[in-house]
Amino acid sequence: MIRKKKYKFNNILDEWLKIQKYHVKESTYATYYSHINNHIKPYFQSYYLKDINQDMIQVFVVEKLNNGRIKDLSGLSIKTVKELVNVIKLCLKYCMEKGYIDNLNLNIKYPYRIKKMNILDQNEYRILVDYLKNNPNHFHIGILFILCTGVRIGEICALKNNDIDLVNKEIHIDKTLQRIADIENKKTKIIISSTKTKKSARVIPIPDVLIPYLIIDVSDNYFLTQSSKYYEPRRFRYKFKSLLKTLDISDVTVHSLRHYFATQCIELGFDYNCLSEILGHASPSTTMNLYVHCQNKYKQDCMNRIHI
After folding, report:
1. DSSP H helical segments within 48-173, as ranges?
2. Fewer Cβ within 10 Å of end Cβ, the chain: N or C?
3. Is the full-model pTM beyond 0.85?
């Protein structure tokens, strides 16, 4: 056993986090910082590195799933808890590389939960699209843009006119806009950085149906505002919720429009690899497992093709 010194686990977390600041994106570092200081350090504050084992981390997982939220003590999502465990694993990997501990193989288990994504039904989709087309403004065209291309909210907020090539009918996605924790000032701030992953940087063909709504000038202006000022995701989400309420449509998220786009593409017969590239996913399996929610009518149409 290598675990000779009594390292406080929280001190090791601070040591590891300090190094990450120079090796990961600013947004990733802000996420690490938040996860460590809000969830991991408070839980493990009395433990030494030598005490950390699989059983302890498994109990941590259960605790966070049941009452991990800071504000109301309700449970965190499995996605968030997996992110927390990933930070712990990365830190422990660092400890192994430094010789602080022996190799530690973790096999953390999570409960099986079906996460249901609420998306528009076909009637609601028609109501929304007809309204957007009949009342075109920068914000409404932005919603149409997501419905026709499947871009992420951060990507469309960072999009500029010169990213849209109307001659070749292409959209160049290579950056994202997001609000992150400003650790030094203990506030939040807007940053524009490279896309979520390398696969997220992509070129999306513009569908012909969208072309008439892309009345832009060749400039460095942001697409959503047609000015030098950006439209931040938080404001976009707020206005979208307000619009749904006005139209008496189900309370869905902006991100669900991306899911609707993916589902529509599959129902139209898109090749899985092609759709995966358009969405900027690492693999087609991500597209199929997380983003496709077939409408009941399409399922019925498929079933009606069966003959006996």
Report:
1. 54-67, 78-98, 122-134, 138-149, 153-158
2. C
3. no
